[in-house]
Design a protein that fits this description.
alpha/beta, seven-stranded mixed sheet, 11 helices, 31% helix
Length: 331
């Protein structure tokens, strides 16, 4: 089968088109004809060598998100049949081949049936960011109807899904963005209150929206120095959730406010055979939200072919993309 592989870490030029052997199907697995994938920041980190602990062995096929059609079902698989349209975050990491190929061998437990009311391209944009948002908001954060939440980065990959899920759950959603264009997008996604962080300080928006008390839940999808803003903006005994905590911070605010702090790194469950089934369960829940027309991925206007994956990586890294960057398989 055709695949875009890497044989060394590096910049986007390391991708090569090659013919490789399609692995044999093992019990519990399915063979998926890949229709589309999307680029996530973790895919770029794997390619560049920034996260060797979760990177596959060379020659490596990258990318976790996949949408496609099942062409073969392994022994013991009862939940899927040949011809089923499916999606999931299924590989491209340690011990798991990725989606940048004609076919992908996948543990059936991580997949769900594709929502009937969205395209393959849209489905490929959802799994990693959707699972991450769901785990953060509902499993780590315990978000309930009637709660106030601040989501940093409300038009980003995880952020734009989190805004929609939080609204679906009945929360009052505040979100930060960086431009007027993104303010309009965030409102369309359902945010109740949109804050341009370039124009409004933490103290100002905490005063305006919480009477100075702070937000009971903050979901920080940005990380870095913005985590300090999250600690500042949180209420006493509040909860701060994040997906980006590879940085050093003064934890005094956590102590002085009695904050709970949770990090979501969704790959941990994917890489563990005993927990990856949870991702399939979450995706089935997300499918129900999508089919109820309460969640829709934001796609970047420009799409790429698998052979243009290097260009797609550069585009995401440039910061110019608004919405998920999707690649379509034309093989």
């Amino acid at each position: 089968m055709k695949a875009m592989i890497i044989e060394t870490f590096g910049d986007s030029s390391v991708f090569k088109l090659k013919e490789i052997e399609s692995p044999d199907l093992l019990p519990g697995q399915v063979r998926v004809k890949v229709k589309a994938t999307s680029v996530n920041p973790i895919d770029i980190k794997v390619r560049s060598g920034a996260v060797p602990a979760v990177s596959p062995a060379f020659p490596a096929v990258l990318h976790g998100d996949v949408a496609g059609v099942i062409e073969e079902v392994g022994e013991g698989v009862k939940s899927f049949q040949i011809g089923d349209e499916v999606y999931g975050c299924a590989g491209g990491f340690k011990g798991l081949a990725g989606a940048l190929a004609e076919y992908m061998i996948v543990d059936a437990k991580v997949l769900a049936h594709k929502p009937q009311n969205i395209s393959m391209e849209e489905a490929a944009a959802i799994p990693l960011v959707g699972i991450t948002a769901w785990e953060s908001l509902f499993i780590k954060g315990g978000l309930k109807a009637g709660k106030d939440i601040l989501i940093h980065g409300g038009t980003g990959g995880v952020g734009h899904i989190a805004v929609q899920l939080a609204r679906w759950a009945g929360a009052t959603v505040h979100t930060t963005v960086s431009s007027m264009e993104k303010q309009a997008i965030a409102r369309e996604l359902g945010a109740n209150h949109v804050i341009n962080y370039r124009e409004t300080s933490v103290k100002e928006y905490v005063g305006k929206y919480t009477a100075g008390k702070g937000f009971p839940i903050i979901f920080d999808t940005v990380g870095g120095r913005n985590l300090d803003n999250s600690f500042e903006g949180a209420a006493v005994n509040g909860t701060v959730l994040t997906i980006a905590a590879r940085s050093t911070h003064d934890l005094t605010p956590l102590h002085s406010k009695g904050l709970s702090f949770h990090v979501t790194f969704m790959l941990l469950k994917l890489l563990d055979e005993t927990t990856r089934f949870e991702h399939g369960d979450i995706l089935r829940s997300i499918t129900a939200v999508i089919e109820a027309n309460r969640l829709k991925p934001l796609l970047n206007k420009k799409t790429f072919s698998f052979e243009d994956v290097g260009e797609a990586h550069d585009y995401l890294e440039s910061g110019k993309a608004v919405g998920k960057v999707v690649l379509v398989n034309k093989w």
